[in-house]
Amino acid sequence: MTKEEVMEKFKKVFVEKTGIEDFKEEDKFIDDLGLDSLGVMDVITGLEEEFNITVPDSDIPKIKDIKSALDYISSKV
Amino acid sequence: MEKRVVVTGMGIISPLGNNLEEFKNNIFSGNSGIERIKAFDPTGLDVQIAAEVKNFDLRNFDKEIKVIELKRIDRFSQFAIAASLSAFYDSLLDLNKIDPYRVGVIIASGIGGIISLEEGIRTMINKGPNLVSPYLSAMMIPNMASGWVSMKLKINGYISCPTTACSASANAIGEALEVIKRGEEDIIFAGGAEASICPIGITSFSQAKALSTRNDQPEKASRPFDKLRNGFVMGEGAGVLVLEELEHAKKRGAKIYAEVVSFGQTSDAYHITAPEPTGIPRAKAMEIALMKGKVPKDEVDYINAHGTSTPLNDKVESDTIKQVFGDRAYKIPISSTKSMIGHLLGAAGAVEAIATILMIKENFVHPTINQEEKDPECDLDYIPNVGREHKIRYALSNSFGFGGVNTALIFKKFD
């Protein structure tokens, strides 16, 4: 999957789950985009479904901002 | 001096209207809100009818809410928020001028977010546990309606959620009454919300043979006290009342709908679903309410019955009213709001309290519809089919719930 394809699918899930359309790669989910911990989990759940991946609990702390989410997905697909 | 409690605002989401005026006009006219289920395709189920809320959009009540938030709030909590905001607007309260710790919220629910729970279980089975929404627990717990209302109105006082089945919101009003009477709060948003019209919600009651299967005549299915009754019809919605300490209400020049006088509660200690057949525990709940409120029996001019349209309830309830009021039972007009809006379970007591208060205020009693064949075991004046002018001094409202809960509330005309 190309970087562009990952970004496109990511954006679809992220907008659907958070309603936030305007974000930058360095934005942190909680500090910059105003999500709470449930909101982050909701995004991760959506990504698991969209990309058909499983995120083990031990990996959840690695996904803190848009960039780390994209990198994580790229490492899995 | 003992504190008195009055109702200074009301809000409703119901199968017969999402505002007080429309609800009042419909129940006074004897209309039915029961139809074939539209929320899902009920084909194949024994019960295919219900009293659904129509044209509901929370954004009409809460202009600031985001679409994304709507997905995280179960339907029962959405009803509760809408009814609470309506009651708040109706009360003309200025919450900026009031200590938020003097305002509480008690929104009951019999079941909670069962639509979300059902969807979550479906996801878990079909797609696996990892894809279940992280919001599910917060969507399904019954006290989340109270939680949302406290957040929306930014009120920090007493918070609770009775879950006493079909008595739950009568319980909420009773609890609110007592909390205000003992001086803990000045104002409480009290009521109930329910949204359980989903396959498992319908099926759970249908398997207990509690629901009417009159699928070919939905508007005739709920017929409390009529000989041909064969079960209740599930409804959904919410009712919220602003209960306020009388002096507090007077000081701010509030409009007063009626006084909440007293509350009585007992337990059948008999069976999980069937009413105790002698009706003695139910009668005791009514007697306790009459005694606590020092209400003369000959000044009770109306009874809003629990009147579910199940064969057992309506007979035992009629017997109970006779035990409590003797010969006067035959002279008191009685009606069942459920004949028109079905049974709103945990929201029933509050919605029926609103109906009762509207009747007290308008000097008019709404009918029990679908009275076609008299049942010799139900021989009281159920205001058959057509409402009428009638002055009410005190009104009694009954609510009974699975688990053997018996609740009686008494309201009084305020003058």
Portion in beta strands of chain A: under 5%
Spatially, the strands of the biggest sheet of chain B line up as 5-4-6-7-1-8-14-13-9-10
Q: For the terminal residues of chain A, how far apart are their CA atoms? A: 7 Å
Helix fraction of chain A by DSSP (H/I, runs of at least 4): 40-55%
Our Rg estimate of chain B from Cα atoms comes to: 20 Å
Give the mean pLDDT of chain B.
97
Shape of chain A: globular
Q: Enumerate the spans of chain A where pLDDT stays under 50 for 5 or more consecutive residues.
A: none
**Any low-confidence stretches of chain B, pLDDT <50, length ≥5?**
none
Number of helices of chain A: 3
Distance between the termini of chain B: 19 Å
What does this structure look like?
Chain A is an all-alpha fold and 77 residues long. Chain A has helices at 3-18, 37-51, 66-76. Chain A is built from three helices and no strands. The longest helix of chain A has 16 residues, at 3-18. Chain A is globular and about 30 Å long. In chain B, β9 (300-304), α11 (311-325) and β10 form a beta-alpha-beta unit. In chain B, 58% of the residues are buried. In chain B, α3 packs across α6 (144-153) and α7 crosses α13. The longest helix of chain B is centred in the N-terminal third of the chain and has 17 residues, at 75-91. The interface between A and B is small, with 11 and 11 residues.
Primary descriptors:
heterodimer; A: 77 residues; mainly alpha; 3 helices; 55% helix; globular; B: 415 residues; alpha/beta; 10-stranded mixed β-sheet; two-stranded antiparallel sheet; 13 helices; 14 strands; 33% helix
Please summarize what this structure is.
The complex is a heterodimer of chains A (77) and B (415). Chain A has 77 residues and is mainly α. Chain A contains 3 helices and no strands.
Topology:
The complex is a heterodimer of chains A (77) and B (415).
Chain A: H1 3-18, H2 37-51, H3 66-76
Chain B: E1 5-13, H1 20-29, E2 35-36, E3 49-50, H2 67-70, H3 75-91, E4 103-108, H4 114-127, H5 136-140, H6 144-153, E5 159-160, H7 168-181, E6 187-194, H8 199-207, E7 237-245, H9 246-251, E8 258-267, H10 280-292, E9 300-304, H11 311-325, E10 334-335, H12 338-341, H13 348-362, E11 364-365, E12 388-389, E13 394-401, E14 405-412
Parallel strand pairs in B: 4-5, 4-6, 9-10, 9-13
Antiparallel strand pairs in B: 1-7, 1-8, 2-3, 6-7, 8-14, 11-12, 13-14
